[in-house]
């Protein structure tokens, strides 16, 4: 059956204390018309009293009823109808014409409803979906609420290809020939036997037919038939990060000359292999994973999963040097996987954040035992034909990892994945701290040589309000996250013994923040492959050196490549005594991504690109002059509080620290033509040279020297204080599909076109015509503003407006106004 988007014509109302009664009796609150996907949480009023607190960025949960009235033709009586929900957060319950038709507790896996028994044919029908996210403290990050991914309708005849009924693998690949193995599940819901023909046609990216097959099938009454066809493809174009070539398989069921049913699936041709000796290889070539963990929200538009939003985020991550993402800690959307297929980004798709032990009061652990197998099946069915997906992660920082029963459960879950998909690898992300909580005292005594009594006395001193040791503890548990103590913990023999059985189960071992284990594992377990499934950005130099020098270590997944909502303030530099990972109102953004929530690449992003060996030009980063000499409280995840700007009005003659990132042997820094010194850089010096000077407006220039010869250059130029609005749109022609987006970046530039990241302007946006404002805002983590407001202040020089096309062709006129600036208008065409 072909999927058809079913996103229009919906209404939403917020339910009261009794959502069931509200849905059945029609006693919902005020209704609002909308086009899906839709995130209800991003429009809620933030409050520091919410139980979710900083975990969701102070956004509260809620219970929402989505309603759609639709016409059911009389001829559908001889067909089968399924309604597919790609993602509803959370505890979805679906009613058709008032009757319960099905539901799904997990907010990240898709599910479908067979509507046949509930429809009134030849008349209007109603579907109601209750998304109940009112049980707060169910997520450790911003979850979003409601029907935040696509809804699809699938209408088929009595004989039809099942939903997700086409599975394509490429078991045999040579340079001149490949075999696509196409499995198709065909269902006969009728009461008569029928002989049909399955026609398979494979086309390349230019729509040329490169392979085809015809399969006669006798469909017995009430039966399901499974077909398997091997189709040759000559001179195959292999899918890889560098060449993400895709094919399409069109499956058609024919009854004579009549099309009974059809569907289309996109796939890629590529091989995977994994060994400790040769690492991860794709199409026979070693690939090191330059990875980023990401959450699922899309910044100023919340969790609303629109194809263009996912495409933009994946493209930006690839441009920043990443070749792999980890969907932490939940299954990725179809839209995200489609984007990764097209852009050439590898995917580690993750199932759960917890198994049977909770991390939050109302999290998914309460449903795990009953539903995990179904969720695994949904995940694999969604992922199977995507070449970008190379690995499944069954869980994140599972607390059962230190027990025998936990290891047994790991075997069960891992084998379930292998039974569903034998061609991909399975791992689980292990956190040593969580797995070894019961042995922590023994481990710490073993590391320090202290007795338990001495350890307890030191802990009591650290917790005393007047103790200096308490100020050290204020930097969080960073001693066990980074530095000598963290390395000693990760390498400790008690930890090794505790994790041994659990980590022996999967195809490779994923370690979160256990960097010093990566190399030693090869001596302990020579056949074991290691992946840093979650690592500290600030540790990238050491991490990438380990990856480069050890074939059994296949990559690094930093936390995190793209900023996100929730876990609010965990990456903020606090100069006022506050601490990260605490409810610091009004902070709503994590603020720890290489790329911020509006798409601006922070200096850390360029530093990482240099460490990866992908950038030759030096990069200049300036530590914020307004905090010179101050020592912030910061988490282990943070790099440096710096910005790529040499505009600091009011700080003339004040001290400044300038960091130049470079892979060259030496760099020289010039200020207005005067040399500030020539210093060593490159890998031996952690790719950085630091200079201290005083601020003087003008031109700051860094020059690379390779073998003593001047090479690449980069510069920052001070901007004038008088600025104008500059607006850049990434897309000026949109589809009239209710989902297409244009991203308009607002910046402040002087008359010479120099960016001024210091200037602050209050900007108002107006959207008129054939579209709407989907979101507007800055990357400011501590604002009390809302992303559906039309007036925002710039932050670090930027704002972002996201405009969504409607269903009608026409023009969208987007204007921006700010005091003292000329009004700017952008016209978008909707076709």
From TrEMBL:
This is DUF4982 domain-containing protein. It comes from the Bacteria. Residues 170-270 form the Glycoside hydrolase family 2 immunoglobulin-like beta-sandwich domain. Belongs to the glycosyl hydrolase 2 family. InterPro entries: DUF4982 (IPR032311), GH2_Domain-Containing (IPR051913), Glyco_hydro2_dom5 (IPR040605), Glyco_hydro_2_cat (IPR006103), Glyco_hydro_2_N (IPR006104), Ig-like_GH2 (IPR006102). Residues 727-826 form the Glycoside hydrolase family domain. Residues 64-154 form the Glycosyl hydrolases family 2 sugar binding domain. It comes from Faecalicatena faecalis. Residues 277-460 form the Glycoside hydrolase family 2 catalytic domain. Keywords: Glycosidase, Hydrolase. Residues 653-710 form the DUF4982 domain. The keyword Hydrolase applies.
């Amino acid at each position: 059956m072909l999927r058809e988007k079913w996103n229009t014509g919906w209404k939403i109302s917020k339910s009261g204390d009794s959502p069931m009664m509200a849905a059945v009796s029609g006693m919902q609150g005020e209704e609002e018309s909308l086009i899906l996907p839709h995130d209800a949480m991003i429009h809620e009023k933030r409050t520091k009293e919410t139980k979710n607190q900083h975990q969701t960025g102070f956004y509260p949960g809620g219970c929402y009823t989505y309603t759609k009235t639709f016409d059911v033709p009389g001829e559908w009586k001889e067909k089968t109808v399924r309604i597919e929900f790609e993602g509803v957060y959370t505890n979805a319950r679906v009613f058709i014409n008032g009757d319960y038709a099905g539901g799904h507790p997990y907010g990240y896996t898709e599910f479908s409803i067979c509507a046949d028994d509930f429809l009134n044919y030849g008349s209007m029908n109603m579907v109601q979906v209750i998304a109940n996210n009112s049980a707060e403290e169910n997520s450790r990050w911003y979850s979003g609420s409601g029907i935040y991914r696509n809804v699809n309708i699938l209408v088929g005849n009595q004989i039809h290809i099942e939903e997700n009924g086409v599975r394509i693998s490429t078991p045999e690949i040579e340079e001149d020939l490949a075999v696509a193995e196409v499995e198709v599940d065909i269902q006969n819901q009728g009461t008569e036997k029928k002989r049909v023909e399955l026609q398979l046609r494979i086309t390349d990216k230019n729509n040329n037919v490169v392979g085809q097959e015809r399969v006669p099938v006798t469909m017995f009454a009430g039966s399901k038939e499974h077909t398997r066809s091997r189709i040759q493809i000559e001179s195959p174009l292999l899918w890889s990060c560098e060449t993400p070539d895709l094919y399409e398989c069109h499956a058609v069921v024919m009854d004579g000359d009549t099309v009974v049913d059809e569907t289309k699936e996109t796939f890629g041709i590529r091989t995977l292999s994994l060994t400790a000796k040769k690492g991860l290889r794709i199409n026979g070539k070693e690939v090191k994973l330059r990875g980023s963990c990401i959450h699922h929200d899309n910044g100023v538009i919340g969790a609303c999963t629109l194809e263009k939003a996912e495409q933009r985020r994946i493209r930006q991550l690839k441009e920043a040097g990443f070749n792999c993402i980890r969907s932490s800690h939940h299954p990725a959307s179809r839209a995200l996987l489609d984007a990764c297929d097209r852009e050439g980004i590898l995917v580690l798709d993750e199932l759960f954040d917890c198994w049977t032990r909770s991390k939050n009061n109302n999290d998914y652990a309460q449903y795990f035992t009953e539903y995990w197998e179904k969720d695994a099946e949904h995940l694999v069915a969604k992922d199977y034909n995507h070449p970008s997906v190379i690995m499944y992660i069954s869980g994140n920082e599972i607390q059962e990892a230190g027990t025998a029963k936990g290891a047994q459960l790991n075997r069960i879950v891992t084998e379930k994945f292998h039974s569903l998909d034998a061609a991909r690898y399975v791992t689980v992300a292990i956190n040593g701290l969580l797995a070894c909580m019961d042995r922590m005292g023994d481990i710490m005594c073993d590391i320090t040589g202290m007795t338990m009594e001495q350890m307890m006395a030191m802990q009591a001193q650290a917790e005393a309000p007047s103790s200096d040791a308490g100020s050290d503890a204020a930097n969080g548990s960073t001693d066990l996250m980074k530095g000598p103590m963290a390395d000693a913990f990760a390498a400790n023999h008690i930890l090794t013994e505790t994790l041994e059985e659990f980590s022996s189960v999967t195809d490779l071992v994923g370690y979160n923040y256990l960097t010093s284990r990566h190399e030693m594992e090869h001596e302990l377990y020579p056949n074991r492959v290691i992946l840093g499934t979650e690592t500290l950005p600030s540790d990238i130099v050491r991490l990438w050196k380990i990856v480069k020098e050890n074939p059994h270590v296949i990559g690094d997944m930093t936390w995190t490549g793209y900023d996100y909502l929730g876990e609010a303030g965990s990456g903020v530099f606090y100069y006022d005594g506050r601490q990260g990972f605490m409810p610091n109102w009004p902070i709503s953004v994590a603020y720890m991504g290489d790329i911020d929530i509006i798409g601006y690449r922070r200096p850390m992003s360029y530093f990482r690109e240099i460490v990866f060996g992908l950038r030759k030009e030096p990069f200049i980063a300036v530590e914020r002059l307004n905090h010179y000499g101050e020592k912030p409280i910061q988490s282990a995840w943070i790099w440096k509080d710096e910005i790529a700007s040499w505009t600091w009005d009011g700080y003339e003659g004040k001290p400044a620290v300038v960091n130049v990132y470079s892979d060259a042997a030496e760099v020289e820094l010039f200020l207005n033509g005067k040399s500030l010194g020539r210093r060593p850089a490159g890998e031996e010096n952690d790719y950085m040279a630091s200079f201290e000077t005083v601020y003087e407006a003008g031109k700051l220039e860094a020059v690379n020297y390779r073998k003593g010869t001047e090479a690449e250059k980069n510069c920052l130029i001070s901007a004038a204080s008088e600025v104008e609005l500059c607006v850049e749109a990434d897309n000026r022609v949109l589809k009239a599909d209710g989902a297409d987006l244009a991203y308009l970046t607002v910046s402040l530039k002087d008359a010479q076109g120099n960016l001024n990241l210091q200037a602050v302007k209050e900007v108002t946006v107006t959207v008129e015509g054939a579209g709407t404002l989907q979101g507007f805002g800055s990357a400011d983590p501590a604002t009390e503003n809302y992303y559906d407001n039309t007036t925002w202040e710039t932050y670090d020089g930027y704002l972002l407006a996201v405009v969504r096309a409607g269903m009608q062709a026409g023009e969208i006129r987007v204007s921006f106004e700010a005091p003292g600036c000329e009004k700017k208008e952008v016209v978008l065409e909707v076709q």
